[in-house]
């Protein structure tokens, strides 16, 4: 039966008379038309709750993320400097790295933060080490210090004592200096040189509780950057991790670092080795279904790239999209926020594939240098199954979106041009999203000496499953006479633990046998068995039926 299915998938269009209403999309991938190297900007992940890192499911997921990537994965976590006992909670974490004795003298403790970084290093991952947030003993407004936020509560409620600037900049800078020196002593100079150090998070918004946000942030940055560079002159330091709409905050930060007086050194300017901003979509819940807002995310990217590229002296500076997501609150489940109901199924998968490719296109159009797009999704320990958090796995079982990253991990070499009569591109989605009658059927392609990989998606902003596409894929100038085709798929029936869980009756506590089934369903699945194909005059033609919100990876290995 599977052989028959694969044969049907490779038949030309006229063999499917019932598909007259199906969207037919010719796509051409010409291996002779290679672009720049395919940068693994997807190999970056982040989350609010750092103490999940060394917990059972956290360790399991980090191992999987490391295994799926051919390059070291970078990990960004909030709350690394918070005061507390290390207990994990939604949008909270702590390491207790800084307290003071009764005389006001610093007391440093690296035990918990070492447990976090050790977990990364053991898996050959790299920290995107966040200098944040403010220890209780250094906060200008320490009471109340910890929040107890839950989904459904006003988001502003999280901004307690940790979100204020230091009352003593010299003590704060010394803490940063001691932390970096400790990391060098523990992990080695060469290892720490490969990390990125950053200051704070979204200081233009809720996360810095002062009136003069840009002035305060720049002062904090001067002290932090000086401390990092004194501890390790070759360390990579940057910021400002502004929100997507904070283009002027980014512009003023750059201007300060280039031309203004440094509050810590008294000299002109401050060192920065990379720039970082955030980009978020805007889903809504209307007509009893989710409508995504990819346009908003691309507008955020476009806004910041335009500003950064306006500074000629910043040509080729590394850029990190510190949070790159369909919306803004990972811990807001779909029960309290119904617009987040896209997260468990294939809509999150197709959105991720389509948006990453368009971010690459915008980066190329500006001639900028995005090196990372942090997917702000991890896991939430001891929470209900498929609660609707923005996470990659639930209770140790991978969700469909994680398999997009497995697909991306199988792509390498140079990016290859994709052409055809395609209804959407980065510019059109930026302007108006994917709201028309046609779905966004497109591809991201790469090639190296051994294989060509083509990722296909069928995406639309509206969460409707009707709308299959038939992709007529032509691969030209293949440097082999015979190939083997591997076809991986994410759809309702493949690589989809959520659909399997629902068919089980949505158990709140799956049995060990059910868990094993769900765990297997969370892995990337082949649509068909690998099949040998002949290449005729350097060309290979394939017809692929692609359901709406599905993603396929075709890996063509040369024989």
TrEMBL record:
Q: Name one Pfam family in it.
A: Glyco_hydro_39
**Signal peptide per UniProt:** 1-20
Gene3D superfamilies reported for this sequence: Glycosidases, Glycosyl hydrolase domain, family 39
User: Keywords in UniProt for this one?
Assistant: Glycosidase, Hydrolase, Signal
Which residues are in the Glycosyl hydrolases family 39 N-terminal catalytic domain? 27-521
Concerning its family, UniProt says: Belongs to the glycosyl hydrolase 39 family.
Recorded protein name is Beta-xylosidase
């Amino acid at each position: 039966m599977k052989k028959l299915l694969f044969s049907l998938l490779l038949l030309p269009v006229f063999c499917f008379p019932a598909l007259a209403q199906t969207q037919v999309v010719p796509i051409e991938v010409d291996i002779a038309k290679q672009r720049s190297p395919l940068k693994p900007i997807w190999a970056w992940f982040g989350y609010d709750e750092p103490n999940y890192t060394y917990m059972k499911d956290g360790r399991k997921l980090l191992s999987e993320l490391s295994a799926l990537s051919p390059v070291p994965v970078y990990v960004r976590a909030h709350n690394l400097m918070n005061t507390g006992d290390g207990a994990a909670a939604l949008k909270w974490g702590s390491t207790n790295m800084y307290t003071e004795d009764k005389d006001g003298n610093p007391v440093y403790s690296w035990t918990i933060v070492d447990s976090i970084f050790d977990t990364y290093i053991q898996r050959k991952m790299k920290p995107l080490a966040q200098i944040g947030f403010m220890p209780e003993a250094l906060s200008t407004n320490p009471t109340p210090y910890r929040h107890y936020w839950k989904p459904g509560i006003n988001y502003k409620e999280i901004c307690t004592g940790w979100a204020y600037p230091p009352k003593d900049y010299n003590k704060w800078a010394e803490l940063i200096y001691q932390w970096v020196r400790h990391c060098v002593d523990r992990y080695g100079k060469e290892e720490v040189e490969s990390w990125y150090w950053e200051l704070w998070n979204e200081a233009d918004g809720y996360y810095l509780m002062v009136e003069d946000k840009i002035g305060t942030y720049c002062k904090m940055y001067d002290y932090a950057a000086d401390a990092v560079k004194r501890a390790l002159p070759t360390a990579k330091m940057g910021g400002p991790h502004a929100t997507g709409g904070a283009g002027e905050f980014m512009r003023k930060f750059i201007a300060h670092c280039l031309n203004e007086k440094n509050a810590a050194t008294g000299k002109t300017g401050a060192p920065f080795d990379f720039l970082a901003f955030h980009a978020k979509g805007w889903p809504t819940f209307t007509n009893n279904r989710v409508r995504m807002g990819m346009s908003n995310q691309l507008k955020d990217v476009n806004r910041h790239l335009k500003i950064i590229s306006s500074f000629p002296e910043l040509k080729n500076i590394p850029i990190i999209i510190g949070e790159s997501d369909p919306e803004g609150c990972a811990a807001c489940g779909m029960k309290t926020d119904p617009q987040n109901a896209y997260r468990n199924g294939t809509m999150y998968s197709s959105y991720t594939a389509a948006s990453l490719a368009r971010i690459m296109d915008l980066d190329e159009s500006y001639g900028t240098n995005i090196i990372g797009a942090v997917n702000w999704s991890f896991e939430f320990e001891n929470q209900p199954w498929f609660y609707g958090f923005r996470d990659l796995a639930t209770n140790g079982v991978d969700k469909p979106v994680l398999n997009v990253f497995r697909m991306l991990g199988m792509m390498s070499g140079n990016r290859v041009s994709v052409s055809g009569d395609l209804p959407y591109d980065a510019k059109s989605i930026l302007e108006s999203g994917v709201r028309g009658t046609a779905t966004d059927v497109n591809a991201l392609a790469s090639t190296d000496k051994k294989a060509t990989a083509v990722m296909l998606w069928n995406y639309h902003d509206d969460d409707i499953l009707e709308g299959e596409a038939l992709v007529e894929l032509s691969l030209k100038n293949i440097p082999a006479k015979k190939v083997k085709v591997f076809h991986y798929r994410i759809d309702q029936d493949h690589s989809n633990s959520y659909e399997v869980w629902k068919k089980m009756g949505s158990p709140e506590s799956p049995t060990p046998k059910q868990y094993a089934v769900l765990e297997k369903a969370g892995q990337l699945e082949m649509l068909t068995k690998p099949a040998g194909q002949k290449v005729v005059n350097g060309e290979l033609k394939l017809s692929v039926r692609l359901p709406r919100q599905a993603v396929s990876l075709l890996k063509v290995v040369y024989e």
